[in-house]
Design goal:
Helix content of chain B: 40-55%
Number of domains of chain A: 1
Shape of chain B: flat
Number of helices of chain A: 4
Distance between the termini of chain A: 45 Å
Order of helices and strands of chain B: HHEEEEEEEE
Protein name (chain A): DUF4468 domain-containing protein
Strand content of chain A: 25-35%
Organism (chain A): Chitinophaga costaii
Keywords (chain B): Coiled coil, Signal
Radius of gyration of chain B: 38 Å
Largest interface: A-B, 26 and 26 residues
Number of strands of chain A: 13
Order of helices and strands of chain A: HEEEHEEHEEEEEEEEH
Oligomer: heterodimer
Keywords (chain A): Signal
Structural class of chain B: alpha+beta
Largest sheet of chain A: 7 strands, antiparallel
Helix content of chain A: 25-40%
Distance between the termini of chain B: 101 Å
Chain lengths: 235, 163
Amino acid sequence: MNRMKTGWVFVWLLFISLQVHAQSKYVQIIVAPSTYTYGPRFVASLVPLTGQKTVVLNFPGKSKQELTRNIFAYLQQRPQLILKPKYSNEDLITYRDFSIVCDSSKCMAYLAALTYVYAMPEDGKIQLRFGKGSTLFSSLYKVDLRITRQDDVASIGNAPFNEYKFVQPEDGGELRSNKILSGYHTAVIHYGIAYPESIYDPKGKLINPGVKQIIEQYYDTYITDLNDFLGKLAK
Amino acid sequence: MYQKVSSITTLLCALLCVMGSQVHAQNKKELKKQAKEAQELQDAIKRRLTTDAAYAESKRPAFNRSSWVGHSLKDLIASWGAPSRVVTDGGNGQIALYENTSTNSGGSYKPGYTVYNGFGQVVGGEASVDTRWQSQYDERVSFFADEKGIITEVKFENNYRSH
């Protein structure tokens, strides 16, 4: 009996730990009504959990110069992260990554991301945010995406892909000819159903919490990885 | 007794027939609904793939241009032909410029006229109609190369003017 109890406690703890692990620590995706007259009624964005514009990593006692050096050391250890000298200066270090987020078994489509990280070291802390050019790409079928040194993305053989839609597109009409009545009629197309990977439906309702969590965790990793690396250097 | 059994059997048969036709109608309705849903999904996916294919194609020119970063200017010229001009970047590097201008025009000019009578009074006429138009599209691709002739950056500029 006791053994069984221990077993259940273990399973419960494992469940809790998985839950805690699954939670993103720094960023979240939110949806809000669009402020534009045209286009989708809802737009989603990735924002820091704190509600601030940037994520702040604290390293008490470390100078700006020290933190700058440590960020460069971090980039040396992560060759897939490409430093962008053109968009970097003494107050800002910009680097980019291009990698797969998830495949159709987890996200119902193939997702890849071009991510720009802006790291702004100061005395005792680093402010981080994701750059404007950061883009999530999505495709229904597996496509081979390539990126140039100037960060232009294309698919091999121009296989169909597009920017990821956090919110499913709204229904639309398509003019069709009617052979029987020899005229035209407007057919309503539910575009949304062709975007199973979207997080929200056209009305902004959460329909894919799993994909939301995967994307949040994907972006979170950039911050946790840097934080862990710099934390170890600080010891 | 036999009559009773017979009437019960008839009744049961009728009941089964009604139930059967109802099930059949329901199945038909369900099948129709499924077919409609499948058609809707097909339409939506077709539309998405068209949009996605257009996006993929739109990304290609920029990708092809910037793929030259890291390659030599010499290889570029061998592939693209002679540039419109090569200028210095002010230091040890150079910029190879490929410029292209295309113009388009159309429309017509129909002159107007005035009809006078013998007393010099205007009695009719028509104003001139000018529907002529002209447009110009300029495109410039600049390849920046370092002192070793290796391309470090590619810039694309375009401009459309109509008058």
